[in-house]
Amino acid sequence: MSSPFYINSLSKTTKGGFTSNIGQHPWRLLSSSSPCKSSSRVCRFMVSLPRATIAMPLTHANNFLLANGDKTKANSSPEVDVLHSRIDELNQKTRKVLMATSNPKMKMKLLDTIQRLGIGYSYDEEIIHKLIDPDEGQLDDDLCTVALRFRLQRTNGLHTNSDVFGPFLDANGKFKESSIQDIETMLSLFEASYLGANGEDILSHAKEFTTIHLMKSVPQLTPTQREDVLHSLELPRHLRMARLESRRYIEEYGNESDHIPILLELAKLEYNQVQSLHQMELAEITRWWRHLGLVTKLTFARDRPLECFLWSVGLLPESKYSAIRIELAKTISILLVIDDIFDTYGSYDDLVLFTKAIQRWDLNEMEHLPEYMKICYMALYNTTNEICFEVLKKHGLSVLPFLRKTWIDMVEAFMVEAEWRNGGNTPNLKEYIENGVTTAGTYMAMVHLFFLMGEGVTIENMRTLHDSYPSFFSVAGTILRLWDDLGTSKEEQERGDVESSIQLVMKEKNITSEEEGRKQILHLIHTSWKELNATLVTPDALPLSIIKVALNMSRASQVIYQHDQDTYFSGVDDHVKYLFFTPIDM
């Protein structure tokens, strides 16, 4: 059975003149005959990418490592000082524009533009103030404005009720045709519908209603409108990776006739400045990785610091998290090595020893390990302790028990997979997903980031976190696990891995077509997004900052695993090139 959001394919012509197809709305499905290109190895975390996918950018990364020495020197040159001065000036002008805009619709559009351009972090307080202003939400607001305000409020963590759409429904609870008189309103309501949670039928109806109308309207649209609609149908804004969307929208915004020049200049300067920061971060990570020496000692292990850093940027796009991105990339790099040990190199008996050593978290346990495992064990032990020391210095928190637990849980989950393979056992779909969320690195990444960020940490939520992982961690991990399977299942089956969620759902539902099995997985992802959206509706013991990380993990999962040419989902090498090595022309 097709999922409720599955629609027929639609051919599109882009600016470059090429034609491609949008397949399964809202997320195009890679066909089984042309899966995500990859090598004979697949990682369990968020970087299941081919070994040679980004070889060219990695060379650039090494060049940057050699060319960019002292980080502080790069940040204190006369040119940089002039740049900072201009950015400060533009920030002040932008703030004045923001405060001077009074028209409700124009105000919401301005807030949306600022956030899409990637400069919203400088105006968090002003944006929240505008969104909770009691003068907002006038009775005569049109549906376009109401939908935009609703999306912005939920995106920014305000618990807005979907009842705001009530005035636009008819006696049968359906949206009035008269309420939607133009493509802008239709698109605004469509985008808002993707922030719906389970039980919000009004938003489910809005999604169905707008999807049908947008699809029908495409042939009559102007080229600019057509491109906007097709991009949204292919990937709604709520699901887009922040930095990639900023890059895309900055280049698009300059072509809009009513664009504000100071916003465009500020967005370009900020983007290029953050890109320079990313280059410095990448140089530091590469330096650390070389010094660690794992790949020189363990020739079977993957050498992918750049891919790990790409995920760090996906989860933490804000420039203020520079140091934390570096620490996260370190943990992912070590995770990949551990995954390779479990997946391709370690014997079953060695894996049992390694699991016991991690569980005991004692350097004396190294004596019982084979040589190739000792260096990995030491790297994990030292890196975790170094991160704990950083958290203690910055936030005064002693977090070793929490971080250690995530590694123990993950290694135990890897061992479960090894036992499935060794015993020829097949888990059911529920068991597979629950275990796969852990082996994907979900809990490890989320817990490390919660303490590294140090925002909203209390004794109560620390205690809760130690007892069990929050449900929204698990939901984000489910989305990650399922996108991983959609992108890498064919390769894993060729390698002889445990059956993926696609094969398991086919068995449980007696499905013979792999394409239909993939549709079922897309439906699970769709349902999981509704569960994840619920964290934006109901208060949680954890702060909005870590909820946003979970949302970003889910967004990055799709963008990286569902890559293809000539669409929003361009290849990962293109993402790396534009994010880290190609500045925006001023």
UniProtKB/TrEMBL annotation:
Terpene synthase metal-binding domain location is: 291-531
Q: Which UniProt keywords apply?
A: Magnesium, Metal-binding
**Recorded coiled-coil stretches:** none
| Keyword Magnesium among record annotations | yes
Biological process terms from the Gene Ontology for this record are: diterpenoid biosynthetic process
GO MF annotations in UniProt:
magnesium ion binding; terpene synthase activity
Residue ranges of the Terpene synthase N-terminal domain? 64-221
Which residue positions does the secretion signal occupy?
none
Entry protein name: Geraniol synthase
What species does this protein belong to?
A: Centaurea solstitialis (yellow star-thistle)
